[in-house]
Every structure is written in structure tokens, then in C-alpha cells.
Write a structure and sequence with these properties.
This protein is of the alpha/beta class. The protein has three domains: 2-74 and 81-87, OB fold (Dihydrolipoamide Acetyltransferase, E2P), CATH 2.40.50.140; 92-186, Rossmann fold; 191-318, Zinc Finger, Delta Prime, domain 3. Helix content is 41%, strand content 22%. The protein has helices spanning 30-34, 108-120, 137-151, 165-175, 195-212, 219-230, 234-255, 272-276, 284-299, 304-318, and strands at residues 2-10, 13-18, 23-28, 48-56, 59-67, 73-77, 85-90, 94-99, 125-129, 156-159, 180-184. Strand 8 (94-99), helix 2 (108-120) and strand 9 form a beta-alpha-beta unit. It starts with a strand and ends with a helix.
């Protein structure tokens, strides 16, 4: 009987490294594949496993027979509705989140969901504010503020540049003799191929929200809009909410004349300067909270029509809160 750690998972095959540093391509026994497994993947990267070595077609390979008890694991909701979760990795000593202010922007909602997930599965989290060599003074000030927010709640934060050898050495030292997971916000909302369509949805949404205060019949338009959004896929809905967060964030910065940090550039006839005057310190926190709650609802497979309708009605009040 051999013991090892799973380094890679590809379909029904797993790359396992044994105590001597030898890698084996392994599969699992048929019965073991389904017994007691509540996730879409019975074995995950980081799992400590037991396996037998066999010879097949003149090559040595492994057959996994058991999984050791996991210290922890981190999951995401599976798109396979017949299962509950998909395990991303297990037996993690620490999780790093790379954060960038732009190219791509990392939103508070994304950071907070990552931290909540890490806390739920008892995984220490470290925040890395990357690309510090590319920021101006205003951007560095915003990074410093973001860092202070998370340090005040007990999280370890570092400002780094991947081109700085000392910073790279620091991260390597933090990873020494530990099993680490990295998470990166890879995709910029502004690079989303649907951003023009999202902007059109957003424009209709906020214009109707403004009209409701003067004409209650406009609520019917919000109902129609919510039904339209609810017929799209959940990933599209979540991307749209993130896109909306970015517009509101940019509008606040525009209102306060911090133009160097504004990342939204209208592609429709939206009068962004006029709209930004309605996004202030008095309503931005509530708007962010409501959109993030809607995002969580969509992730939890809630009724999309009800979620967007509820959010829309709240927006009619918040967008004109002075």
C-alpha cells in the first residue's frame, strides 16, 4: 500500500506524488467512486490518498483505494444540479488572494466572498495587493485604505509587485513548508464581451427606477425588466451585478472628482456625469450591500425574478437618497 498527495485532477485521472517524490497517474476503483460521495468530484487536489501500484500495458499506474480524513477543504457550488458541491482543493494551510485596483479591478464583493468562504472552511487567508509598481499616488492611497479596512478585521495584508525580487522572496518564504492556494481575479468587468449589452440593461434599469418616484405605473416596467434578466443564465446575472457595482463605484469617484480611478467608460448615450451626481456617500454603502445580497441570492440558486424585482424596488428609493 502506497500513500501520496493528489497534485492534479484531470477527468477520471489523478496525478499523485508519493513520499519518495515519484509521480503516478492514478484512477479510482469503480465502487469507491460513488460510495458516500456528496460532491461532484470524489477526489480533489491536496487529498492524502492510499493507492496500489499496478502494471498496465507495460506502464506503472496507480489505483486509489482510500482517502485520508481531510483537515479542511474549499468548495464552489456545482453547476451539476444532481450534486451539491465541487471541491476545489483540500488540506490547505493558507489561501492567498491577489488583489489589483485595475487591469483587472478586484471588487469588494469578490474579496468578501473569498474571505467568507475561507473562514467557513477554517483556512487562513492572506491578501496580496499586487501591481504596486504601476499605481500613482491616488491609487496607492486607495490601496492603503482598502488594506486598513481588512487589517482592522484581523487579516494579514501585503503590498507587492511581482517584478520586485524582494516581494517574490517574501511570498516564497510565506509558502515554505505549507500547502497554499492562490486565487486571482482574472477577468476584468470592462473586458467582458457583453459590457455594451450590460450597459443598456443598466441604463434602462436606473432610468425606470428614477421614473417610479413620479409615476407608480413605471413599476410595471421594472417588473418586465426583472423578468427579462431572470431569463438569462445565472453566470450572466452575476456578471451583470458585478458590472453594476463597477458603474456605481465609478460614479461615486466621478462625483468626488477622483477621475484617475474611474474605470467605467460609457458605450451608450448614458449621461454618466449627470448620473454620478446621484451616487454619494449617503447611499453608496446601501447600494453596494443590496447588490451584493442579490449576488449571494443568485449564487444560492434563489428565484432570480424575485431577487431582481426586490433589488429594483430598493434602488428606486436609494438612487434618490440625498
Amino acid at each position: 500500500m502506497n500513500k501520496g498527495i493528489v497534485y492534479r485532477s484531470t477527468g477520471s485521472w489523478y496525478l499523485v506524488k508519493d513520499a519518495q517524490g515519484v509521480f503516478y497517474s492514478c484512477r479510482i476503483k469503480g465502487k469507491f467512486r460513488i460510495q458516500g460521495i456528496k460532491s461532484t468530484n470524489p477526489i480533489a487536489v491536496g487529498d492524502r490518498v492510499e493507492f496500489d501500484v499496478i502494471e498496465e500495458e507495460s506502464e506503472l499506474m496507480g489505483v486509489i483505494t482510500a482517502i485520508d480524513t481531510r483537515d479542511n477543504y474549499i468548495v464552489r457550488r456545482s453547476v451539476n444540479l444532481s450534486k451539491q458541491t465541487h471541491i476545489i482543493a483540500s488540506n490547505i494551510d493558507q489561501a492567498f488572494l491577489l488583489i489589483t485596483l485595475n487591469n483587472p479591478p478586484t471588487f469588494f464583493a469578490f474579496i468578501d466572498r473569498f474571505l467568507i468562504t475561507a473562514e467557513a472552511y477554517h483556512i487562513p487567508a492572506v491578501l496580496l495587493f499586487n501591481k504596486m509598481d504601476t499605481y500613482g499616488e491616488e491609487e496607492k492611497a486607495e490601496i492603503q485604505w482598502m488594506q486598513s479596512v481588512y487589517e482592522a478585521t484581523g487579516y494579514t495584508c501585503y503590498q507587492i509587485s511581482s517584478f520586485n525580487e524582494k516581494d517574490v522572496a517574501l511570498i516564497e518564504s510565506l509558502m515554505q513548508n505549507k500547502s497554499s492556494m492562490f486565487r486571482i481575479a482574472l477577468k476584468s468587468i470592462n473586458d467582458n464581451e457583453n459590457n455594451k449589452e450590460f450597459e443598456e440593461w443598466f441604463l434602462k434599469w436606473v432610468r425606470t427606477a428614477f421614473k417610479v418616484r413620479k409615476n407608480k405605473e413605471e413599476v410595471l416596467e421594472l417588473i418586465s425588466w426583472s423578468k427579462m434578466i431572470s431569463k438569462t443564465g445565472r453566470e450572466v446575472q452575476k456578471n451583470f451585478l458585478s458590472f453594476s457595482l463597477n458603474i456605481f463605484r465609478s460614479a461615486l469617484l466621478k462625483n468626488y472628482e477622483i477621475n484617475s480611478l474611474v474605470s467605467f467608460n460609457p458605450k451608450t448615450d448614458m449621461n454618466f456625469e449627470s448620473f454620478s451626481k446621484y451616487v454619494t456617500g449617503n447611499n453608496i454603502e446601501d447600494i453596494f450591500c443590496e447588490i451584493e445580497e442579490a449576488h449571494k441570492g443568485i449564487e444560492s440558486n434563489g428565484n432570480a425574478n424575485m431577487i431582481f424585482m426586490d433589488l429594483s424596488l430598493k434602488l428606486t428609493r436609494l438612487i434618490q437618497k440625498q
